[in-house]
Design brief:
It is built from 6 helices and 14 strands. The chain is an alpha+beta fold.
């Protein structure tokens, strides 16, 4: 009888703790964001994309009061910046004037802080984003979207492709990414309009899908769009990560583009 009562009391105590846990949480920003994810309330209207840290100004740079803040991700609706030195105020709801520097233009944009996460990440929403900047960010999102939808394709042992490709990825729009074991050709990325060929020792080349027999050197903007796609692959493989590192490390590819000061 005592054992029964003990188990009964333990059951009520465990139920009480679960009840308290459901309705009580630490009101810090990280806890609020975590609760929102658990309740499936973290959906945003705008897709967030990661931007590769290339050694030039094809990607926007963000400055506040003269200090530059690394870009974590960006969308049509806002941006997430990394504040390593805790320069930002921790007041959610405050409005800030952010300087957005591109290769050929500089604009002041009003933003509002909407959240703080991981202690150093500041989530800002655009208050009055000019149309020309909205178009530029839209093109970046458009280039990154195929990477978000890219998925690995199993290579069966009996498949003829096994003799050529070591790894295959495919997308819903006809995009594909293949890695090869050849000494020269490392990978081939097929998008809607272009096919990128990445090599071990020579700069990348592209070919128009309409004229597959002719290749030419890749342009800076084209390479940036390819990097946006690769950077936004969900759960990228080791080969994808190494390809991104390889392309960014080739400083001669970016030497003629506006260099960060």
């Amino acid at each position: 009888m005592r054992l029964f009562l003990k188990r009964k009391n333990m059951f009520h105590w465990n139920w009480f703790k679960q009840f308290i846990k459901m309705f009580y949480f630490d009101p810090s920003q990280d806890s609020v964001l975590s609760l929102a994810r658990k309740l499936n309330l973290d959906r945003r209207e705008q897709v967030r994309i990661r931007v590769p840290e290339i050694p030039c100004s094809l990607a926007p740079r963000f400055l506040i009061s003269g200090s530059e803040f690394p870009l974590v991700n960006i969308s049509m609706g806002g941006v997430c910046l990394k504040d390593m030195q805790n320069i930002f105020s921790n007041e959610v709801g405050q409005e800030l004037v952010v300087t957005m520097n591109w290769l050929d233009t500089t604009s002041l944009v009003r933003c509002r802080m909407v959240a703080i996460s991981k202690h150093v990440q500041r989530h800002l929403c655009f208050v009055d984003l000019p149309p020309h900047l909205s178009q530029r960010i839209g093109k970046m999102v458009e280039a990154a979207m195929p990477g978000i939808k890219l998925r690995p394709l199993p290579i069966l042992k009996y498949s003829p492709a096994q003799t050529e490709a070591l790894e295959l990825w495919t997308g819903v729009g006809g995009e594909s990414l293949a890695f090869y074991g050849a000494d020269d050709l490392v990978a081939e990325l097929v998008t809607v309009n272009l096919t990128y060929k990445f090599f071990q020792k020579i700069p990348p080349r592209v070919q128009l899908n309409e004229t597959p027999t002719r290749t030419r050197p890749v342009k800076h903007q084209e390479l940036f769009q390819a990097l946006l796609l690769l950077e936004n692959v969900e759960r990228p493989s080791y080969r994808i990560v190494q390809l991104i590192v390889h392309l960014i490390a080739q400083k001669n590819l970016w030497s003629q583009v506006g260099t960060k000061k």
